[in-house]
Amino acid sequence: MAFLELNNVSKGYGFGPKRAEVLRDINLHINEGEFVAIVGYSGAGKTTLMSLIAGLQRPDEGTVTLRGETVTEPSPDRAIVFQNYSLLPWLSVFENIALAVDEVFSDWPADKRRAHIEKYIAMVNLTPAREKKPNELSGGMRQRVSVARALAMDPKILLLDEPLSALDALTRAVLQDEIARIWADSKKTVVLITNDVDEGIMVADRIIPLSAGPGATLGPSVQVDIERPRDRRALNHDPRFKVIRKEIITYLLGQGGRPKASVTRKLVLPDIEPEDLTIPRGLVSGRLSPIRRREIKQETVEVE
Amino acid sequence: MSDYCELSNLTKVYPTPKGPAVIVKDFNLRIKKGEFVTLIGHSGCGKSTVLSMLAGLNDISGGGIILAGKELVGPGPDRGIVFQSPCLLPWLTAFENVMLGVDQVFFTASKEERREIVEYYLTVVGLGDAMHKRPTELSQGMRQRVGIARAFALKPKMLLLDEPFGMLDALTRIELQQVLLEVWGRTQLTALMVTHDVDEAIFLSDRIVMMTNGPAAEVGDILEVKFPRPRNRAALLEDAEYYRHREHLITFLEERAHHRTRLVQAA
Fold first, then answer.
1. Residue A62, by phi and psi: left (phi above 0), alpha (psi -120 to 50) or beta?
2. Under a CB-based contact definition with an 8 Å cutoff, are residues A233 and A61 in contact?
3. Which helix (H) or strand (E) holds A296?
4. What is the CA radius of gyration of chain B?
5. How far is CA B169 from CA A166, A194, B175, in A?
6. How many percent of chain B have pLDDT more than 70?
7. Cβ–Cβ of B76/A277 closer than 8 Å?
């Protein structure tokens, strides 16, 4: 039996004619210590899938089990890192993490908890900023706090819900490397949800595409057999990188893509030129209709 | 073919309490008619400043811009702009948003012809079914499609794209690049795009101009992209040339763009 299992999971919202199927027939088996990336479109149902694993929502059909136990509610076993960081603005970096640690390890003595928090702040390289409040931190730093908070709970599984989507490309690259390093150190089971195929290839053991909704389902999973640590520049030359990238993108743009709206309509594009608005409208008078392309004649004037 | 758009010694200086801040210095670029050129560089390198001067939305401190034989002064509908966020009027439908500009530049045309122009472009960007919806009823990607249709419908001399897909997720971005390329292929407008997405630059452009980091940004390197058009992404992803271009750009962005900053600090 796999560490985390989703069997025939379906989920929709609403009733009757307004019912919207979000996920159907989701089957996902993740082994202990594995790093899996799920790649899909915005609005495909990635966050719904994450909520089901986290226990924030229950599936309509099918089961979600962690180590053989059915998931029915949220628990510190499954820590989530959200795209929007979800930090408390009036607490410092240290206090935000302490909130989670004090709750989960309430039986520990205070100095042990303190040392534990410091360790995770150091792991995400935020020790110099430990007393800062979220609004004094950049987006990348806030996300590190959120990652430290999740890891400090010592969860069985770490759920990353588009953690880097709100960051710029360069900060994202730095944090991808950091996530890969932290995963290698902590050996946690990780599920990453993202819309960036390259991000998945950089950090994950396995990538699974999620088709576009409604009624999204998982596509064929692709193993990323590229040794770690992975170097972004070397990866660019790696034939395995190209194959994986192409396979996922082809699936997501093809059979897993959004249904194409096809409209059959006779379209006419009038062959007319726009008016020069720098000429006052009165001066265009004498000509009440626009210039047509075929009326434009090329003239060559020779000057000495 | 002669140059259609010419940026000569373009300079932008902002006065600050600590003295003038030079953002762009002596920037030179010549664009041929029908060419698709991309400016790539890090955030804050001044690439958007160059674009906004070309758009006429930002005053030129030094040098000048000639478009189709005339020096540019101020903004105008002869340049169609696609912004990072589409800036649609929320109380108007997609159709009405596009019609707003079309009514202005085609005021001598018949009502019927204007309607045909708007319907044509909204349909080719894939909004044939959603023309009469308001922005709030559209997804982010669909709103950006309206922004693309709006720019093309003016039949501008030049198309300016300021990180047009920067706010979209990676997959919607791929879809919209395809849409843009399709519409662009029909019209062959001269285009200048600003982006920091390496794949986007290669997929769309004929020429990629790499800018060094600001302040006083300038052209660092130029890459010609000679893939035949229409381009097919799947075929491109198999082409070794594609990865060589990618490597070239990534290396520039990682090393050379910063190199200059280091030199300045050391001095």
1. left
2. no
3. none
4. 19
5. 10, 9, 10
6. 95
7. yes
Can you tell me the distance from the alpha carbon of B8 to that of B30, in angstroms, rounded to the nearest whole number? 8
**Minimum-distance CB partner of B139 among A43, A232, A265:** A43
DSSP H helices in chain A: 46-54, 93-104, 110-123, 139-152, 169-186, 197-203, 232-237, 239-253
- Across the interface, whether the CB atoms of A169 and B197 are under 8 A apart is answered yes
Tokens of A140: 């990348």
Crossing angle (nearest 10°) for helices B111-124 and B140-153: 140
Pairwise CA distance, residues A26 & A41, whole Å: 16
Give B117 to chain A, closest Cα distance, Å. Answer: 6
Give the number of other Cβ atoms within 10 Å of residue A64's Cβ: 23
Distance from CA of A68 to the nearest CA of B (A): 35
Residue of B nearest to A268 (CA): B116
Distance CA B177, CA B156 (A): 20
What is the radius of gyration, based on Cα positions, of chain A?
26
* CA A203-A207-A212 angle, 5° bins: 125
The superfamily in CATH containing domain A4-77+155-253 is P-loop containing nucleotide triphosphate hydrolases (3.40.50.300)
For chain A, residues classed under CATH 3.40.50.300 are: 4-77+155-253
Side-chain-side CA neighbours of A71 within 13 Å: the count stands at 30
pTM of the model: 0.75
**Which one, of B184, B188, B159, B181, lies nearest residue B81 by Cα?**
B159
pLDDT of A14-71, one tens digit each?
Answer: 888 888 889 999 999 999 999 999 998 877 888 899 999 999 999 999 999 999 999 9
The answer to whether A135 and A55 have CB atoms below 8 angstroms apart is no
Name the region of B245 (left: φ>0; alpha: ψ -120 to 50; beta: rest).
alpha
Distance, in Å, from the CA atom of B37 to the CA atom of B201, rounded to the nearest integer, reads 9
Q: Is the confidence metric ipTM above 0.90 for this complex?
A: no
Q: How confident is the model at residue B265 (pLDDT cuts 50, 70, 90)?
A: very low
Residue of chain B nearest A232, judged by CA positions: B250
